[in-house]
Design goal:
Layout: E1 6-10, H1 21-31, E2 36-41, E3 58-61, H2 69-82, E4 87-89, H3 93-101, H4 103-109, H5 118-123, H6 129-136, E5 143-146, H7 149-158, E6 163-166, E7 172-175, H8 178-192, E8 196-200, E9 205-214, E10 219-230, E11 236-242, H9 245-258, E12 261-270, E13 279-284, H10 292-295, H11 301-310, E14 326-328, H12 338-347, E15 349-351
Parallel strand pairs: 1-2, 1-4, 2-3
Antiparallel strand pairs: 3-15, 5-8, 6-7, 6-8, 9-10, 9-12, 10-11, 11-14, 12-13
Length: 367
Amino acid sequence: MNSSPIIAVTGLHRGENPQPGSAVIRSLRRVYPELRIIGLVYDSLESGLFSEEDAPDAAFTMSYPGAGVEAFWQRLDAIREIERFDVLIPCLDAEMGPLVDSPEKLRERGIHVCLPTAASFQCRDKSKLSELCERTHCRTPQTIAVNDVNSLHQAAATLGGNVFVKGRYYEAKRALTPAAREAAYWHMIEQWGAPVLVQENVEGEEYNVIGLGDGRGNILGSCSMRKMLRTASGKGFGGMVVRDPQLDAIAQSLIAELRWNGPFELEFVKPDGPRGEYCLIEINPRFPAWCDFPSTLNCNLPAAALELALGWQPREPLRRPMPGKFFIRHAIDMTGDIRDLAALTTTGQLIRQAHEPITQPAFAHNA
């Protein structure tokens, strides 16, 4: 590659349930401030577009996942006619399927990615998590996939009534009554389609592990944290770094079994009491919204993922964050201009800074 690459990042919404894209951009620019980064968005009001510190240099609207896989690839091709991006960092679960299922389409287009294989991706699916945990001797809540209301109630009864109703990609609603379960079921169907998952509720402290797998069973870098604050929907609004050899061993076992390549987030609950065991809730196949927190502690996983995708030598080593460091998220107002909003809404693109190709190599990388 003879010039600085262009990086495409998705998931720029930073509301109450923030998406990871803006945090990924912030992390990348900590190490590579000269990168040109474009945002791929599904809504012209995604707040990350208007942030002064991590807004992309340009943005393009994408077709919604409901439009189908062919529309997804056609829109990527149309965008690359304008901005021929070299690396794609997807930050939304719903985008992952078309990408991991068609690696040849990425290769044909010369798009570099850091993604798991289709087999690894399927093995960590919420509906198959119990099989993975059985092989790795990791505890996980009992989960039943349902496709109709009768099965929903039967599953809830089997699991004792105290359950979460979860979407296939996102969201989980605790439901203790038949009416609450039905309302949650239809919401998940409308938002994410079938199947809907019914999962037993495990009470306890929540822990998350973010990391980067090398595709050969190793973890190149990771950070574990305990949730300190949660939103009404259960999302982490604050967390503290922890270091527990037991948690590290579980994470290593899971990633080794999957031979996971690329970013991941493991979500656990640890029941109260001296005999409480970490219980794996789900495995997210991308960076979480808090991925810039470890980057402030010399563990820049997005930058490492970029280097892994391009085969570059790391510019900075990945270090273990120090236990006791914490983050707290807070909300601020973004200021925008109606002309930018109109451009993105009507034309599907917003170019803040024109691309000026660099003729000399910007970075050292592997031959």
